[in-house]
Design brief:
7 strands, alpha/beta, five-stranded parallel sheet, about 220 residues, Rossmann fold, binds adenosine monophosphate, two-stranded antiparallel ribbon
Length: about 220
């Protein structure tokens, strides 16, 4: 199964991707995580993208497309994958389409998580992540058992630099301007499935599993 998760920052793509990856036994491909790893490791790529990411803007398409091309060539991606945070522009979506075509592959479904702006802003500003194992917490809805410490690996939790309130608003605007047009792009290809979240308490994973029963692979 080749999936794309689409939605504003804070819509819950990362949490959903982790659940689906476990259920289907296929990898989550988060370009955000890959770029953050490059920044943390201080690579050439990391140096190029750090300031862009901190400002809430998008990293240039060619850089992101290159890391995706490299990732998709790896054996672990050969039986399917779940994109979380990619593509984010029309040019990325076209690049992905061409890349998959080269291998005789295609995207089976694009899941759009539609979440009200108030909920995403609240989620992002209350989000804490484990820099070691990647687990995601929310101080209001899913706090760690011990304040500031990861339940899974006991590392100290951190706030992402771009989850600060002023950057969150910018990221939301960037989503509307650059990424939301992909909704129409995938609607035209008849592979878009919309999951509407109203209050944030829904079992989104179950809703998505129900939708995916209808998807032909
Ligand atoms: P995320 O973790 O998906 O919210 O991504 C964090 C940041 O990484 C974004 O705000 C962008 O600066 C950058 N980024 C992640 N994925 C992409 C992408 N597909 N295209 C451009 N920039 C990206």
């Amino acid at each position: 199964m080749n999936l794309i998760l689409l939605g504003a920052p804070g819509a819950g793509k990362g949490t959903l991707a982790k659940d689906l990856a476990k259920i289907f036994g296929i990898p989550q491909i988060s370009t955000g995580d890959m770029l953050r790893e490059a920044v943390a490791a201080g690579t050439e790529l990391g140096k190029k993208v750090k300031d862009i990411m901190d400002s809430g803007a998008l990293v240039p398409d060619d850089l992101v497309n290159a890391i995706v091309r490299e990732k998709l060539a790896r054996p672990e991606c050969h039986n399917g994958f779940i994109f979380d945070g990619y593509p984010r522009t029309k040019s990325q979506a076209e690049s992905l389409e061409n890349l998959l075509k080269e291998d005789g592959k295609k995207i089976d479904a694009v899941i759009l998580l539609e979440v009200p702006k108030e909920i995403v802003v609240k989620r992002l500003t209350n989000r804490r992540i484990c820099p070691h194992c990647g687990r995601i917490y929310n101080l209001i809805t899913m706090p760690p058992s011990k304040e500031g410490i990861c339940d899974g690996c006991s590392s100290k939790l951190i706030t992402r630099d771009d989850d600060k309130e002023e950057v969150v608003t910018r990221r939301y605007e960037v989503y509307l301007e650059r990424t939301a047009p992909l909704i129409e792009f995938y609607k035209q290809r008849e592979i878009l499935f919309t999951i509407t979240v109203q209050n944030g308490d829904e079992d989104v994973t179950q809703m998505v599993l129900n939708v995916l029963k209808r998807v032909r692979k």
